[in-house]
Design goal:
about 450 residues, alpha+beta, Outer membrane efflux proteins (OEP)
Length: about 450
């Protein structure tokens, strides 16, 4: 009864420990990253800044209104003699001058610059949104690859443990055979050495898993030591539509659309500078109030003065010669526009090449995986037959060891092909900015 109770207790402890490890799906990881990623938060702030800057006032379309007030007080000593020999003097004479006004300034015409600037601000806002989307897609891609790297490393540990179990069976068989005097001790020792090496590999693999988990936690912007578990398989069900990918490549790719926006902005910058050749007309209006008080002065001077009233006016500026600066600025802006167009075309070419390479890599990895899955079944069957033959004394321990190594190598290759296929899938979806990238 005591042994039963202890056994049940250990079972419960194991069960609740397993439950304490949160099973994190790929979609869960992506959701956490979308909420917590500092890169996404910064990109969101940059997009919000671009949106806040896109106003009519920032484009120069609206007037400015200001209230101004000035009050000057002076204290001074005077001694004055007039032509009629009259003399006056005062100490600490006080003079006060107060002036206030309300002014309105409004650019009514600036060669159309304000309208070009407003359009440019709209394009900058759209570019900010695209760059935010690019950041989101890149973050999602990084999280997916990091997540499935943890899955791959975890499955590698499963492979190591399976090989350890097979090797334990080999040690037991050779121990029995050695005890019966049917095999040399060197065969038993070699099997025990191999078992130790496999155990070492398993321990090192556990460290690799922990490192991979820390990288994923970092991408999720949370405590790198946060505990979690992942799924046991790498999903490889995606089948790309090549024609669809080629047709939508330039229209959907976030990087290409961003570069196109930069070309559009560069064109508007040229137009914006060209408006500096044209006349400019500013309208201004206001209301002034002036009050001054003088303590002393000549007999004809004003002791107090109050004046107030509106004013309306305008300023016409016609640029005739500006030292060639506008021409220089337009020329430089035109060259920058050409560079932006060259960059766009170069990016399109590079993107097309990247898509073709990704499709080729995807197809290659899928074919390799199909072959290796079949090969893995063969290596497993071969290992089990080899263990059985060793038990019957029909083969050598070297043959069984080679079968173990072949089985483990096949498992590793299969995991790598699965992971590489997931990498190629993620890359294809990222190139097309697919909304189901996380799936």
């Amino acid at each position: 009864m005591k042994k039963i109770i202890i056994g049940l207790s250990l079972l419960l402890v194991t069960f609740f420990s397993a439950q304490a490890q949160q099973v994190l799906s790929a979609n869960d990881a992506v959701s956490i990253a979308l909420k917590n990623s500092y890169d996404i938060l910064v990109a969101g702030n940059n997009a919000a800044i671009d949106k806040a800057n896109n106003t009519s006032g920032n484009a120069g379309m609206l007037p400015t209104v200001a209230v101004n007030a000035t009050d000057n007080i002076s204290l001074y000593n005077t001694k004055q003699t007039y032509f009629n020999n009259t003399q006056t003097s005062s100490n600490n004479a006080r003079t006060n001058s107060f002036n206030s006004n309300v002014t309105l300034n409004w650019t009514l015409y600036d060669g159309g610059k304000m309208f070009v600037t407003k359009q440019k601000l709209q394009e900058i806002e759209a570019l900010g949104e695209l760059q935010y989307k690019e950041t989101v897609l890149q973050t999602v891609s990084n999280v997916i690859l990091a997540y499935y790297d943890v899955v791959k490393q975890k499955q590698q540990l499963v492979s190591d443990n399976k090989v350890i179990n097979y090797n334990l069976e080999r040690v037991k068989i050779l121990q029995t055979s050695f005890n019966a005097g049917n095999t040399a001790k060197t065969n038993l020792l070699q099997a025990q050495i191999d078992l130790n090496v496999y155990n070492e590999n398993a321990l090192m693999q556990k460290s690799v898993i922990l490192d991979a988990k820390k990288i994923l936690n970092q991408l999720l912007s949370r405590d790198i030591n946060a505990e979690f578990e992942v799924t046991d398989t790498i999903e490889t069900n995606y089948i790309p539509n090549t024609q669809d990918l080629l047709q939508k490549l330039y229209a959907n790719n976030a990087s290409i659309i961003s570069l196109q926006k930069q070309v559009d902005i560069a064109k508007l910058s040229v137009k914006e500078l060209q408006t500096l050749y044209l006349p400019r007309f500013n309208f201004n209006a206001g209301y002034n109030y002036l009050n001054s008080n003088n303590a002393v002065g000549n007999p004809t001077a004003l002791k107090t003065n109050n004046s107030f009233g509106p004013l309306v006016g305008g300023t016409l500026t016609i640029p005739l010669y500006q030292g060639g600066n506008v021409k220089r600025q337009v020329s430089v802006s035109s060259i920058q526009l050409k560079s932006s167009e060259y960059g766009l075309e170069n990016a399109k070419l590079a993107l097309y090449t990247e898509l073709i390479n990704s499709l080729t890599d995807f197809e290659s990895q899928r074919n390799l995986l199909a072959i290796e899955k079949n090969n893995h079944l063969l290596t497993k069957e071969n290992l089990e037959i080899s263990i059985q033959r060793l038990r019957l004394g029909e083969t050598t321990t070297l043959e069984t060891k080679l079968a173990e190594e072949s089985y483990q190598d096949s498992f590793t290759r299969m995991l790598n092909f699965e992971y590489n296929l997931k990498v190629a899938e993620t890359k294809l979806k990222q190139l097309l900015a697919e909304t189901d990238l996380k799936l």
